[in-house]
Amino acid sequence: MSLNNSSNVFLDSTPSNSNRFQVNVINESHESSAAVDNNTDPPHYEETSFGDETQNRFRISFRPGNQECYDNFLQNGETAKTDASFHAYDSHTNTYYLQTFGHNTVDAVPKIEYYRNTGSISGPKVNRPSLLEIHEQLAKNVAVAPGSADRVANGDGMPGDEEVENKEEEDKAGVVKFGWVKGVLVRCMLNIWGVMLFIRLSWIVGEAGIGLGVLIILLSTMVTSITGLSTSAIATNGFVRGGGAYYLISRSLGPEFGGSIGLIFAFANAVAVAMYVVGFAETVVDLLKESNSMMVDPTNDIRIIGSITVVILLGISVAGMEWEAKAQVILLVILLIAIANFFIGTVIPSNNEKKSRGFFNYQASIFAENFGPSFTKGEGFFSVFAIFFPAATGILAGANISGDLEDPQDAIPRGTMLAIFITTVAYIGVAICVGACVVRDATGSMNDTIISGMNCNGSAACGLGYDFSRCRHEPCQYGLMNNFQVMSMVSGFGPLITAGIFSATLSSALASLVSAPKVFQALCKDNIYKALQFFAKGYGKNNEPLRGYILTFVIAMAFILIAELNTIAPIISNFFLASYALINFSCFHASYAKSPGWRPAYGIYNMWVSLFGAVLCCAVMFVINWWAAVITYVIEFFLYIYVTYKKPDVNWGSSTQALSYVSALDNALELTTVEDHVKNFRPQCIVLTGGPMTRPALLDITHAFTKNSGLCICCEVFVGPRKLCVKEMNSGMAKKQAWLIKNKIKAFYAAVAADCFRDGVRSLLQASGLGRMKPNTLVIGYKKNWRKAPLTEIENYVGIIHDAFDFEIGVVIVRISQGFDISQVLQVQDELEKLEQERLALEATIKDNECEEGSGGIRGLFKKASQLNITKPTPKKDSSMSTIQSMHVGEFNQKLVEASTQFKKKQGKGTIDVWWLFDDGGLTLLIPYILTLRKKWKDCKLRIYVGGKINRIEEEKIAMASLLSKFRIKFADIHIIGDINIKPNKESWKVFEEMIEPYRLHESCKDLTTAEKLKRETPWKITDAELEAVKEKSYRQVRLNELLQEHSRAANLIVLSLPVARKGSISDWLYMAWLEILTKNLPPVLLVRGNHKNVLTFYS
User: Residues annotated as region Disordered (predicted)?
Assistant: First the structure.
């Protein structure tokens, strides 16, 4: 059927295809449909559906010329169909054709909500359907909520999105956010234009000349411009929250660098408030001096005026960011008027008074004379540069309030770079103008004019009719090099320059007063310094850091009352420069790490330029003040060490992580180009622990000889239905790796899902590791319950030993008396913790309801209890578990708990007995040697036991001592055992025979037919023929246990050569009996068998 274009006809009766129909997609936007040619037949696209193929599918034709039918489907942008009539799988309705996809699917279309972090302040995080939900069979009992199913089923959203979005809009109401002009440009310009512009720039031009003065300005601008580019690149590489320089550095380089620089940057801003306020107070005090209106004395007047000023500024800041922004705009207007006033003054004809003070308007001769440097005693290029450079700082004023910007990614680059450009032009303009109008020295006396007949000294002032030659012999008060108020003199109206000075100091103080709490709050929120968590709290819609304001106020007041900031000023400048250096280094580091996540939208940057900027900042720190630079580095280093030691639990995807990965990858690849050498051999182990927390003792002993020297992989095999196993495996991967990290075990966790245990281990043996970092040793626990275990478990257990030897991997079997598995203990702990939590929750609920009266209170209690999911414990089917629940963990199998921690404890003075019976390449000797290097085992001495001939004991002892000396392995004693091959005593042999009795076939006692039948039915049993063929080997295992009982019963650890079962010759049960009788009633035993390749060498 096809859809007619008419508004009153929907379906036509003409069949198109009885089984398959097509959807003709013309244009999804009817607004733009008029541009489509009506006479052109559009292409037809076959619609793909996940529905039943037997369902009929319809062909829809929609012609752009007629919109009535389509428009009837929409009501205010929503489908006309009501929620109550919608079905999740209704694909043949009007709604079906108006979704993003024309079929039912839980697949979601790309949305920003899926990519947000949890707890994002910019909006809610929504979880997209998992791969499992899409991949697995669709559940038949899907409950679809009315009004949301149409969006979910067609990939257009998640239930509750609309409500969340509405709540988000409500939360945003009343929040003040700034654009790039008011938020960044204005702040940066005010912070960069400081007092230096009005009272020091003229002196800098006088000392360095116009040429070098402009060079100083450009050099300072180069530092700030590179930093601005780096800031822009970092700020546009993802969403930027509040915190300014701290946020940018910490998210790029990690918490260690960010935490260290964040604290000193916040402190620097707090002290900068005092610096700017004192600068303002000094100017006011100078005015009071001129009018003889001093209150007390200059120092105390500065303190009084400074204290009042900082209180007023605090009031403006606490009133809210909107008021602070308005104040900044007013101050900028005043500052711009003051600058314009100066330029206007340069073209107003000078009078005699101003000429006597060195101002002659624009003169080429003055420009030429002032172009070169004229440094006074003690001054030079770098000293003048050090004085000017702080005037170029302040570029982070906008970035510091990044959390209050509407679009930080757009505002920070645009506002910061434009502010740097405008202020640089203004600095250069003022420097050139003042250098072209005012001479370096002037007397200020109108009588110092040149009388006709006098010889001119050749100076520019001389050519203009004034003789200032006496300034060469005695100090003068006027001119570029002597008068700091040159700009007031040159300007059209002097008081406006004073207003400009007020504006510059107050605006910088206000910006710092806002920046310090914002940066400090962001630092405290990240909980890097736990003691400062108190200052993380924000208030109001704008999350204002009121506590941070108070702290900044206290710091500023303290330094204002000191009123001596000349010493602290260089340190503050260096703090800011250290921040600039780290921002530049962050940009370089992120680029160098080549992480795919480094995709800054602002592309005008270069990694090597950023690195040059970082080096330049460090150099400028020493140029300004070397001892202040040293202090800055020491403080930053101390904070870095502190944060590194504390290891804050944060993960920001820093470039440090990215570079670590790249470095590890490069090193792993580089290792593959080098052949393995015996000198560099180290045990690299696969440990079959299951979950690492379930067999801690097995992991501890393995970690003891792999820590800091070899690879250790804790492996778990999930056996069972694949779907359930994979789900369980995936859900526990991160948790178990986190357990290893928490317990400071340097190991990896790996898991596989397999049909049987042996297949899983075989996969791990083949695929684990990377390049040269592949396992060469398999470590397993001894199967203590082998006599009660099912046949398949024994076959799998012995089979993995055979598999390891097939893959030329060494094997270590560890046995302790109590066994390794403590999963039952962990289960008890979990049960008790849950019961304790429920008890505490119930007590809290009861306490809350004690004050309530009547039945209403009781009902409230039961309601709360149901919300807390507190239920009466139901008896378990397993009676043992019901017993366990009533027991304390300490009372449940205390020996097993103690045994699980025995390798965590420091081993006292004792011995590690090494029974090196067979040469396996040296692994049996290397592992105990490595153990003696560990702190826990260093008090244990090695005793070596080897087999030998009874008549050559001394010779073989000397030979073994010589070999060990060449291997440089220290030992306490060597024992040559000459009676290994004698028969064991009857009692021991009887124990062995009783052990294997349940698994013997005894075919020799039966007739041939019966014997053959038994062999077919129970091929795993030990035959008489097999037992007779390996009787000598069985004797040896029993005899070795007797010798071990005799010599090593008191040892801390026994390391023993593992007997090898030849495939096809030794049955699984006989092999297990060998291992059992060999290690029975002994201290902890390591049965070791290397892969028979050298792991020891005496060659250098």
Answer: 31-52
Whether the pLDDT of residue 144 is over 80: the answer is no
> CA 440, CA 379: separation in Å to the nearest integer?
15
> How many Å apart are CA 972 and CA 911, to the nearest integer?
9
CA pair distance 150, 155, nearest whole angstrom: 9
Residue 916 neighbours by CB under 8 Å, 6+ apart: 924, 925, 944, 945, 946, 1057
Which residue in 427, 443, 430 sits closest to 393, CA to CA?
427
Q: How far is CA 967 from CA 100, 942, 962, in A?
A: 73, 14, 9
585 and 199 in contact (C-beta within 8 Å)? no
Confidence category of residue 161, pLDDT binned at 50, 70, 90: very low
Q: Which residues are within 8 A (CB) of 38 and not within 5 positions of it... i.e. 6 or more apart?
A: 63, 64, 65
Cα distances from 715 to residues 682, 686, 802, in angstroms, run 19, 7, 18
Residues 179 and 232: their CA atoms lie apart, in Å, by 16
> What is the residue type of 517?
P
Chain length of the chain? 1100
pLDDT for residue 952: 86
259: helix, coil or strand?
helix
pLDDT of residue 811: 95
Amino acid type, 974: I
Between 732 and 166, name the one with better pLDDT. 732
C-alpha distances in Å from residue 459, one per residue of 9, 356, 370, 410, 434: 99, 14, 11, 52, 17
Place of tokens 């005012």: 438
Are the C-beta atoms of residues 913 and 1052 closer than 8 Å to each other? no
Asked whether 580 and 187 are in contact (CB, 8 A), the reply is no
How far is Cα of residue 75 from the mean position of the Cα atoms in its chain?
Answer: 47
Confidence of residue 994 (pLDDT cuts 50, 70, 90): very high
- Is the separation of the CB atoms in 570 and 268 below 8 Å? no
Chain-wide mean pLDDT for the chain?
79
CA distance 110 to 101: 13
Chain position carrying tokens 């799988």: 89
| 633 contacts: CB under 8 Å, gap ≥ 6 | 578
Point out the least confidently predicted range of 60-69, 462-471, 484-493, 534-543.
Answer: 60-69
Share in percent of the chain as helix, strand, coil (round to 5): 55, 10, 35
Contact of 241 with 250, CB cutoff 8 Å: no
DSSP helix/strand/coil, 753: strand
Contact between residue 377 and residue 360 where contact means Cβ atoms under 8 Å apart? no
Q: In this predicted structure, what is the pLDDT of residue 73?
A: 38
Domains, the chain, in order of start with CATH, read 180-646 (1.20.1740.10), 690-815 (3.40.50), 906-1089 (3.40.50.620)
Query: Which comes out higher in pLDDT, residue 72 or 112?
Result: 112
Tokens 């398959």 belong to residue: 20
pLDDT in tens, 182-203: 888 988 888 888 777 887 888 8
The tokens 């998210």 sit on which residue? 251
What's the pLDDT tens digit per position in 574-605? 888 888 898 899 889 888 888 888 888 888 88
- Would the pTM of this model clear 0.90, i.e. be above it? no
Report residue 1092 as tokens: 């028979």
Tens digits of per-residue pLDDT, 311-332? 998 888 887 777 778 888 888 8
Say if CB 175 and CB 542 are below 8 A apart.
yes
Answer yes or no: are the C-beta atoms of 388 and 200 closer than 8 Å.
Answer: yes
Alpha carbon dihedral 631, 637, 643, 646, in 10-degree steps, equals -110
888 and 1028 Cβ atoms separated by less than 8 Å: no
List the structure tokens of 1034. Answer: 């069985």
CA dist 461 and 482 (Å) reads 16
As a whole number of angstroms, the distance between CA 1038 and CA 983 comes to 9
Residues 6+ apart with CB under 8 A from 354: 489, 490
Q: What is the C-alpha separation between 480 and 367, in angstroms, rounded? A: 13
